[in-house]
Amino acid sequence: MTDKKLLMGNEAIALGAIEAGVQVVTGYPGTPSTEALETIIRYADRCGIYTEWSSNEKVALETAVGAAYSGAKALVTMKQVGLNVASDPLMSLSYIGVKGALVLLVADDPGPHSSQTEQDTRAFGHFANIPVLDPATPQEAYEMTKLAFELSHEFEIPVILRTTTRVSHSCGDVEVAVAEPEPVEAVGEGFVKDRRWTIFPRLTAERHPWLEGVQEQLSERFSELPFNSVSGTGKIGIIASGVSALYVKEAMESVRYSEELFTLFTVGTVYPFPEKAALSFLKEIDRLIVAEELDPYLEEQVLQLIGKAHLPVDVYGKKNGFFPVGGEYNVNLVTDGINLALSAFGESLRLSSAVPAISKEKLPPLPVRAPTLCAGCMHRTVFYAFKQAAKQLKKETQADTIFSGDIGCYTLGNAYPLNMVDTCLCMGAGVSIAGGLSRTNPQAKQVAFIGDSTFFHSGIPAVVNAVYNGADITLAVLDNRTTAMTGHQPHPGIGLTALGSASKAIEIADVVRSCGIEFIKTVNTVEADSLGSCVKAAKEAMNFKGPSVVVFKGRCAGITKSGKYYEIKPEACTGCGFCVKELGCPALNLDADKPVIQDSCSGCGLCAQICPSEAIGIGGVKL
């Protein structure tokens, strides 16, 4: 008995995993992957699934590996840059394999919309000898998730389910096998001791031929799967995977008799490449257009196959300039690429972009919202405090200050008018980069900012390194008691697990003290006059010789409001605009050259603390 549901791609993956019998689910939040684990959390108690937000992706994978060694079916969720963190255990795991089943949901972010990179996980699967499935729709995401568990169990190897932002976050009708998720089976036999689980060079040498043999078996199996499909009978071939295949189909709809002109090969199992099916497709065409986001992965696979089989097929893709080498694709971009290829080989056929139902000229422009810290965000207070402390120290010592940032909401401290992030690389790197800068810029003060969740993710080893090597840096930990940027997930410092049950809250100050930090201050940013305390603590920490830490405790304005709001007293305001120019708070604006406080005010009071005319005060309490 099937049921049809309107599901986001990530929700479809979650339901597919539950139906496949997943017993352990781990992950670290990261857009666009987050909703998959959050969906499983909703059913975890009912279905008997152990679910956790881990401290980082490496830990999440290793936890899932332990479960899979015990015969469990396990799922790990992360985004593409999280795969970098998990890559160390994953590269070795492909040699060892698993006993139960292990699936990695890795969500790529073409664009990118919310990431540091546009890396392509299809290429990583090839590099690591790990199968990669690439769904195009929520329905395929649901079905391929179940397939991934089947393949992992059968071949005793981890499997990557690679999605992209448009697949993870798009919604569609999905036919599911059961109306409501049912309890999964308990883990069976458990862990059985075997030399296979201990990887040494000799074992690696023994397992490598097995691993390569699995790739050949999977390529054969993939060639027979319906996710690799051929449609049309034309001599102009097009190959695509994932959401790019949908763009191609939509572009082809503008051409009458397109099935007689084109043959489309849609690849759902991108690695190992389904050579048998691809070769059958290539033998029936004269020219090939390759439409794919990010890396020229499919293009390289078909070029290699064409060369190996000595086929007279010309290829038009990224490598010869017919499609962009980066960025997110859409229907119009794919249409232009196909038309460019058609023009190159002299076809009179032209595809046209679909005409919108409403003329674009009649549509109102979308509002422009520059990335900015929320009104009332505690991070703004801390950034402003360090800005003031750095100015004071500059006057006293002539020393400049370099501010190293990190990944999170506080990355937005780089925006005008704060301008407080000079470097940003990846999670946890701000602390280490500050250490490196201290070696090459001894005359400057070094300040690193890190969030509470990121501290637990990858900041602790960097703190240990700073203590061990005596780096002269100041670390500001911005503790708003949540993983704010990805949707307010809990972390080890909060005292709640993913399922909402109470746990031991780990104090950041205690952790850095145990690492050997001697200068530690904790400042409450919620108090009405907190700016002065923040500036004092920042200056003291920056004057300390050696590694120092200030933990700034506050609240996330996206979760907890103060209940107050502030207003400007017209009779006292001089119209200097100092509050607007200094803070960049979205609740502050200028109206006829006079500052105004808008309804989005969440009552942090920072503007009142810096107003030179004392013209800002509490206006009341929000109901």
Chart the SSEs and their pairings.
Layout: E1 3-8, H1 9-19, E2 24-27, H2 34-47, E3 50-53, H3 57-69, E4 73-79, H4 80-96, E5 101-108, H5 121-128, E6 132-133, H6 138-155, E7 159-164, H7 165-169, E8 171-176, H8 201-223, E9 229-232, E10 236-241, H9 243-252, H10 258-261, E11 262-267, E12 269-271, H11 275-282, E13 287-291, H12 297-309, E14 314-316, H13 331-344, H14 378-397, E15 401-404, H15 429-440, E16 445-451, H16 452-468, E17 474-479, H17 508-514, E18 519-524, H18 530-543, E19 548-553, E20 564-568, H19 578-583, E21 588-591, E22 594-597, H20 606-610, E23 616-621
Parallel strand pairs: 2-3, 2-4, 4-5, 5-7, 6-7, 10-11, 10-13, 13-14, 15-16, 16-17, 17-19, 18-19
Antiparallel strand pairs: 1-8, 6-12, 9-11, 20-23, 21-22
Helix pairs in contact: 1-2, 1-6, 3-4, 8-11, 9-13, 11-12, 14-18, 15-16
